[in-house]
Specification:
Elements lengths: L1 H5 L13 H7 L2 H4 L3 H17 L5 H19 L12 H13 L1 H5 L6 H37 L4 E6 L2 E7 H26 L1 E2 L15 H8 L3 E2 L3 H6 L2 H27 L7 E2 L18 H24 L13 H25 L1 E2 L1 H10 L4 H12 L3 H18 L8 H5 L8 H6 L2 H7 L8 H25 L1
Helix pairs in contact: 4-5, 4-8, 4-10, 5-6, 8-9, 8-14, 8-21, 9-12, 9-21, 12-13, 12-14, 13-14, 16-17
Length: about 475
């Protein structure tokens, strides 16, 4: 009986062994073992505090650090033994430490609760993983910027309602996603700002009965600020929600891009193609070349959004302070980290390797009457026709093109003249020119060539600033 009780770090109050269902439903080590690095780092900082306030001797502190580093090595070499009886990674590490160094290991948890311990570990985990994700977004932005720079002169259809709307430069389309992911980067930086808080010293909920030096631990862990309220520190999960929202928005942007990759690589569109290395075939149809990466990322976006919803629902009815429900918070967090990382990698590779097909794009532009608005504006600006009349004339011309199975480019001049005398001559073709159409959009943020160069330069500067800001944080 005594051996069974000793397995539980909280077992002194209990006379009988926990039921099997209690151990099975209560264990979290199957997933929270991912926190081992953060738990060890946090424990070393806590041990330094215990050394300073006289709970540990220098010899005991050194043995704790040595023992914790040995445990880290054992875990990373796959030599560490896990058991559901010890519930979570925190109890596993403390139990193993006590086995390695004896009584000094039992002192480590002085002035600390698992409530503030796990809350701190998760914050450290978010910091570590967010920095990795930020690095991956930088790689993605770099690839988008290069692809945009290489395709400034290539004109493609811009869409509204998934109908051909107006010609745009392909660089303009790609840069739309540059700015979206740039905002994701900045939002993750904000997530780090509100995440990097020292909560150790909060204890179970009310603080601790020791003269804990929280500033010492703050400096040791490289965090930004101390938590202001011990109840808030151990019971709220805003830092996880902030990360999950940022992750969801990244995957929303990613999913929209993937949807377009799927559409644009289809036979019906044929604007882009992906290499064999980034596509799959069919078990029954030998002709198939499927954009599976894009489809899988589109699916993962639903998963990450669901994780955010899971956390919101988990928290909405919990009274202060800590409740065991919060053990479930890490499942959504860990999964979203994994899905965001692999999705960004997948998008980066697809953009880097995709090839554009200009002839398909031009054909779609012509068949979609993409310069109809330019033709109406030509009537307004050059021929001084009121816009509503110009709109009507062009609408009739488009209708006639549809009847004749023609485009604005190849419909007969006599047919054009039957609608308006102004639809003849070289000025007509200049008005419906695809490159001319893009050049007319010479406003800040527009698709004109000069504005593309301007935007690319700004994007280049922004990327350099993001790199510098991330480096400064390390």
């Amino acid at each position: 009986m005594q051996e069974e009780k000793s397995q539980k770090l909280w077992g002194g109050r209990f006379e009988t062994k926990a039921a099997s269902i209690m151990e099975r439903i209560g264990e979290s080590v199957s997933f929270d073992k991912r926190l081992y690095k953060q738990d060890i780092i946090g424990s070393i900082a806590h041990a330094k505090n215990l050394l300073k306030i006289g709970i540990l001797t220098k010899e005991e502190f050194d043995s704790i650090v040595t023992g914790l580093m040995q445990i880290k090595t054992e875990i990373e070499l796959g030599q560490f033994h896990y058991t559901t009886e010890l519930e979570d990674i925190h109890m596993h590490i403390e139990h193993r430490l006590t086995h390695l160094i004896g009584q000094a290991g039992k002192k480590l948890h002085t002035g600390r609760s698992r409530n503030d311990q796990v809350a701190q570990d998760v914050r450290l985990f978010i910091r570590d993983e967010t920095n990795e994700i930020l690095e991956s977004i930088l790689r993605l932005l770099d690839v988008i910027l290069k692809k945009a720079s290489d395709n400034q002169e290539l004109v493609m259809p811009g869409y509204t309602h998934l109908q051909v709307a107006q010609p745009i430069r392909t660089s303009h389309y790609l840069l739309a996603y540059f700015w979206a992911f740039e905002r994701n980067f900045k939002q993750l930086q904000h997530t780090l700002e509100v995440n990097d808080i020292l909560v150790l010293g909060s204890g179970a909920l009310a603080g601790v009965n020791y003269n804990t030096d929280r500033d010492l631990m703050l400096e040791e862990l490289g965090l930004r600020a101390l938590s202001d309220n011990s109840i808030d520190a151990v019971s709220q999960r805003d830092h996880i929600l902030n990360f999950l929202f940022a992750a969801s928005l990244i995957l929303v942007h990613a999913s929209r891009l993937c949807e377009e990759i799927i559409i644009y690589s289809s036979v019906e569109f044929g604007f882009i193609s992906l290499p064999d290395s980034l596509t799959t075939g069919s078990s029954i149809m030998p002709q198939k070349k499927n954009p599976d990466i894009a489809e899988l990322i589109r699916g993962k976006s639903a998963r990450v959004i669901a994780n955010l919803n899971h956390m919101l629902i988990l928290l909405k009815g919990l009274p202060l302070a800590y409740n065991r429900d919060l053990q479930e918070d890490k499942i959504s967090l860990f999964d979203s980290v994994d899905q965001v990382k692999i999705s960004i990698e997948g998008i980066t590779e697809m953009i880097r390797e995709m090839k554009f097909h200009p002839e398909k794009m031009q054909n779609s532009l012509n068949r979609g009457f993409a310069t109809a608005t330019d033709l109406a504006d030509y009537l307004v600006n050059d021929k001084k026709i009121p816009f509503r009349e110009a709109h009507e004339h062009v609408g009739k011309l488009v209708s006639l093109c549809v009847q004749r199975n023609r485009t604005l480019v190849d419909i007969e001049e006599s047919d054009r003249a039957s609608i308006s005398e102004h639809f003849v001559g070289e000025s007509y073709f200049a008005a419906i020119s695809l490159p001319n159409s893009t050049e007319k959009k010479n406003v800040y943020g527009g698709t004109a060539s000069v504005r593309q160069k301007e935007q690319l330069k700004k994007a280049e500067n922004s990327l350099a600033n993001l790199r510098q800001s991330l480096q400064a944080e390390k």
